Amino acid sequence: MKPFDKYSSYYNAIYKNKAYEEETFYINHLIKKFSPIEVEQVLELGCGTGGHARELLNYGYSVHGVDMSPGMIELAGEVNVKNNLFTCEQADIRELELNKKFDCILSLFHVMSYQVENTDFLNALRSARRHLKYEGLLIFDFWYGPGVLSDNPVIKERNFESDEVKIKRMTTPMINFNENIVDVKFDIEIRGKENGVTENLMELHRMRYFFLPEIKLFLELAKFEFTVAYSWLKEEIPSQKSWYVTIVAKAC
Q1: Domains in the chain, start-ordered, CATH in brackets?
Q2: Which pTM value belongs to this model?
Q3: How far apart are CA 232 and CA 248, in angstroms?
């Protein structure tokens, strides 16, 4: 089973408290600070259910989102119905061919860390470059190696609920130190509130953590100019305490 095959059905319930508004405020600030061109049209690689896109529309951007998961795109379509400045489609970001260029490309919530092979990551960057205007910005976040290795991921249990279901999620990580990968196993129990029916599902998400020298090398190979790396939601140089890092790069 591919990541999000079934998980997508419960994604909005699990992440209903995610700080989309705060995160998009931060991204908009980075666009205004670093973009040498006016940004109107945004391409979002790995748009999920449209949480960030919904907030980006409030800043006046038009957004086209792509995601590999049919379930995610189906849910993102609800944003499309409510605002025609957002469009979306199912696609693999490594092989994307839209025959259109955008002012800015975003890839948020660690989508790039799902590109676990060197070819996956490089192809995703090259795909972004094909769809970006000259001097347009690429902004993405990822799992940062020093942070992951100094504060190893641990087993966690969390509970969520929607109007219809209660959800219990057990997260079990396993670090593959020689591959720079964390295998994250999600065991999820979904219980209906009215009928009490229980569904159990398991998904394995392989997440790669990166280091800045390799990020810069990949960006150069994909014809990007590295601009800055910040700790996520901050304007600070990443440290060992930074689990997530934001990259801003410019198409050259």
Answers
A1: 7-145+210-251 (3.40.50.150), 148-208 (2.20.130.10)
A2: 0.95
A3: 11
